[in-house]
From TrEMBL:
<protein>
    <submittedName>
        <fullName>NUDIX domain-containing protein</fullName>
    </submittedName>
</protein>
<comment type="similarity">
    <text>Belongs to the Nudix hydrolase family.</text>
</comment>
<dbReference type="InterPro" id="IPR015797">
    <property type="entry name" value="NUDIX_hydrolase-like_dom_sf"/>
</dbReference>
<keyword id="KW-0378">Hydrolase</keyword>
<dbReference type="GO" id="GO:0016787">
    <property type="term" value="F:hydrolase activity"/>
</dbReference>
<dbReference type="Pfam" id="PF00293">
    <property type="entry name" value="NUDIX"/>
</dbReference>
<dbReference type="InterPro" id="IPR020084">
    <property type="entry name" value="NUDIX_hydrolase_CS"/>
</dbReference>
<dbReference type="InterPro" id="IPR000086">
    <property type="entry name" value="NUDIX_hydrolase_dom"/>
</dbReference>
<feature type="domain" description="Nudix hydrolase">
    <location>
        <begin position="4"/>
        <end position="131"/>
    </location>
</feature>
<dbReference type="InterPro" id="IPR020476">
    <property type="entry name" value="Nudix_hydrolase"/>
</dbReference>
């Protein structure tokens, strides 16, 4: 059913050590990629640029975004829903600062996320792709 799918746009942001930026929203447990829901009439590029500015104070030019892929997984914070994410790799040496609904922000080694609670999209789709274990 179409109402069971949440369309989002997210970003892969790495620091100089190639650690991956993950965020946790207020009132939730799972860490995920920064980004959010695509609003009506908005394309994924505009959505991720808007979300990065709102959530992390990061202002980017669209040229800083490279398509990484589109993936689907169970939604971390909305039981019964599937999230369909358009993911962009971001070229920037920004200094993100948690804002809006972001409760926590950390840099994690994508090959060793440790005991962090990760959103299904990140755990099942993104990290394996980064590790080269999925096409």
């Amino acid at each position: 059913m179409a109402g069971d799918v949440i369309r989002v746009a997210t970003a892969l942001i790495n620091n100089e050590d190639d650690d991956l930026l993950v965020v946790r929203k207020t009132g939730t447990d799972a860490f995920m990629l920064p980004g959010g829901k695509i609003e009506d009439g908005e394309d994924p590029t505009a959505a991720v640029l808007r979300e990065l500015e709102e959530e992390l104070g990061v202002v980017l030019h669209p040229d800083a975004l490279q398509p990484f892929g589109t993936f689907s997984a169970p939604a971390a914070n909305e039981p019964g829903y599937t999230v369909e994410a358009t993911i962009f790799a971001v070229t920037t040496r920004c200094t993100p600062q948690p804002q809006a609904e972001i409760a926590d922000m950390i840099w994690v080694d994508p090959s060793r996320p440790g005991s962090l609670i990760l959103a299904p999209l990140l755990r099942a789709c993104v990290l394996p792709r980064l590790a080269g274990t999925v096409a």
